[in-house]
Structures are given as structure tokens and as C-alpha cells.
Give the backbone structure.
Amino acid sequence: EGKSSRRKIRSAMEWAVQLYCDSLADTKEGKTAIATLHSRGFTDESIQKFSIGVAPDSWSFLTDRVLDNDDRIETCLEAGLLKRKESSDRVYDAFRNRLMFPICDETGSPIAFGGRRMNEEDEPKYINSPETALFHKSKTLYGYCQARKTIQDSRRAIVVEGYTDVIACHQAGITNVVATLGTALTNDHAAKLS
């Protein structure tokens, strides 16, 4: 109650990160996700460091938890966690059956998600959160909060293509690595890195 829209979105994102991380441990999709991550060489330490989770294969995993509160529904819609079907006004989860990569700001607070398909037949391969009051793709770098100190100390930054590239590099001890979010490197990205 009484929180600004930005603070509500931030709270919703923190809530969703926790639910997706919990799902990694206690759902059938979580078991599949962990096996997938391990098969790609990711350690439990990296999974935890980057707060990787899983969105269960459900249209209402998050929706069911907020249906009794219109304010929470609106916040989740603003945050891009839920979508509304215009023809029926029905609300449903934006991410289903996907590995969930939280995208964080400079302080490490989650502001968006990247969701990678679990089923190779699902399209598209990746879904990012929409732009919100907190999240702007052209200004955000994945892994920045984890890489920031090393970038400052080494005065070098390595920019790679995606989430898993960042995590693999950090896991290998190369920790001044970040990724753009499906965009070319922008002036805002360069300014942040400099």
C-alpha cells in the first residue's frame, strides 16, 4: 500500500525471482531445468549466483497467487510478469516452461527477466520482459552487477551475446563479462561501461 509504481514493480520482481528459484527445487520442470543446466556445464554455485529459476508449464503459476488482489494484478501487468487477453480480459502468466534469468540493475535488484525455452519446439527461443518504468533494454547489461567490480579494477569489459555466455565466462573465472539484451551495443551501454 502507498508504494510508488517503480517500488511496486521492484517488489513484484523480487517476489517472482524467489518463486522461480523455489520452483527450480520443487517442481518437475525444475528437475528438468537443473538437468539441462548441468548438461550445459553450469554448476550449482553459478545457478545460485545468477538466481536462475524456472517458470513451470502453467498459464497461472503467478496469476493464481495474485487473483484476489486487483492492485497486485496491475503491478504484475506493469512489470511484464502477467499479460491480459484483450478479447476476454483474462490474465495469464507471461512466462511458461522457461529457464528464468533475472536481469538486474546496478545494485543487483531484479528489474526484468529473460526466459529461455525448455522445450526446443517452443518459439521464440528467448523471451525478454517488456520495457517498464525500471527496465530499458538499451540501457541495461546482463551480468553488470556481478561484473562491475572487476570491470572497475581491470578497466576492461568484455561484451558477449547472451546470458549463458556471461555465466560460462564468470564460472571460468573471467568476471569482467556482460551481455547486451538482444540489441546492439548502444551509447548508453558504452557510457555505463566507461
Q: What stands out?
A: The chain has a mean pLDDT of 95. The first helix runs from residue 5 to 26.
